[in-house]
Design goal:
single chain; mainly alpha; two-stranded antiparallel ribbon; 13 helices; 2 strands; binds 3-hydroxybutanoyl-coenzyme A; Ferritin-like; Ring-1,2-phenylacetyl-CoA epoxidase subunit PaaA; phenylacetyl-CoA 1,2-epoxidase activity; Aromatic_CoA_ox/epox; Ferritin-like_SF
């Protein structure tokens, strides 16, 4: 019976069908989506921290307003994604317990410090640029609630990337020598962690094969990484910054840029919890959760009173 249901499910996926929350799905498909969507949501919420710490120090009112809007967007993306994950039967409390206990992952990139104002532009340009590359294919994910959330999120991500690139371009074109050096320093620190964001090489990725079979992952980690590198090289040229990879060069035969070896030991170390800011990021989230307990209790008490009132 189960095998028959699974075969019918696979046939639906092969026909390009989109799966809704009420449809039958293999337990492993459900678990994969809860894992990926909840970790995606955690990434958005934790991702508010590195940039958030520059809101009070933005150099102009315009930059402050833009940064406020972007950080607020990330919070909204997190809520869309937690809601999408809840359609699979998990709860907000379960997902957040997994984050706070260190069981669940969030994007490695947010475990790096934002040392100068130029980091905020580098995050917009490189990190949101990488996030867009990774998120556009998810708009066609076979799990429809996730795909719908992604369509809305991708619209806002393009604003995130443009504002980051424009802020760096302003510094490179109108800035002082030290501001230009600040931009180059930020690019030097954010380049390789952004390249790692796409996940391990395909031949070291335990989830890719199954996720591609199920139409959850439409493009592999390495293919998206290559697309990102090819686009960034052109953008770096317009900015007038150099990317910190001496092996980066156009390969006519491949019609792509070759690039240097990635330090996968650093990647696995960071996602195992031993990156520059992992403890600080998790402590900030646990503190926010504990300090917000009274808001959740008040909202639940109010909801119970509402229910009582409607029963009378
Ligand atoms: N950071 C942390 N963990 C990562 C990672 C990264 N950059 N890349 C891979 N991993 C983890 C995977 O989660 C998996 O661990 P798990 O089984 O415990 O979850 C393990 O490394 C092996 O990687 P796989 O490639 O086999 O795993 P996936 O098939 O899940 O692919 C992924 C990883 C490409 C990140 C995929 O999960 C994905 O597309 N996720 C949704 C998109 C996402 O999370 N993007 C990054 C968010 S950044 C962002 O959106 C904020 C931006 O708006 C600023």
């Amino acid at each position: 019976q189960e095998a028959l249901l699974e075969a019918r499910f696979d046939a639906r996926i092969d026909d390009g069908a989109f799966i809704e929350a009420k449809d039958w799905m293999p337990e492993h498909y459900r678990r994969t989506l809860v894992r990926q969507i909840s970790q995606h949501a955690h990434s958005e919420i934790v991702g508010m921290l590195p940039e958030g710490n520059w809101i009070t120090r933005a150099p102009t009112l315009k930059r402050k307003a833009i940064l406020l809007a972007k950080v607020q967007d990330e919070g909204g993306h997190g809520l869309y994604l937690y809601a999408a994950a809840e359609t699979l039967g998990t709860s907000r409390d379960q997902m957040l317990e997994a984050l706070h206990s260190g069981k669940a992952k969030y994007s490695s990139i947010f475990n790096y410090p934002t040392l100068t104002w130029a980091d905020v532009g580098a995050i917009g340009w490189l990190v949101d640029g990488a996030a867009i590359m990774n998120q556009v294919p998810i708009c066609r994910c076979s799990y429809a609630p996730y795909a719908r959330a992604m369509v809305r999120i991708c619209r806002e991500e393009s604003f995130h990337q443009r504002q980051g690139f424009e802020s760096l371009l302003t510094m490179m074109q109108q800035g002082t020598e030290s501001q230009k050096a600040m931009v180059q320093d930020a690019v030097d620190r954010w380049w390789w962690p952004s390249v790692m964001m796409f996940g391990p090489p395909d031949d070291q990725s335990p989830n890719t094969a199954q996720s591609m079979r199920w139409g959850i992952k439409r493009v592999s980690n390495d293919e998206l990484r290559q697309k990102f590198v090819d686009a960034a090289v052109e953008q770096a040229r317009v900015l007038g910054v150099t990317l910190p990879d001496p092996a980066l060069k156009w390969n006519e035969a491949r019609q792509h840029h070759d690039f240097g070896a990635i330090d996968w030991a650093e990647f696995w170390r960071v996602i195992a919890g031993d990156g520059p800011c992992n403890r600080e990021r998790l402590a900030a989230r646990v503190k926010a959760w504990e300090e917000g307990a009274w808001v959740r209790e008040a909202a639940l008490a109010h909801a119970r009173k509402q229910e009582e009132r409607f029963k009378e």
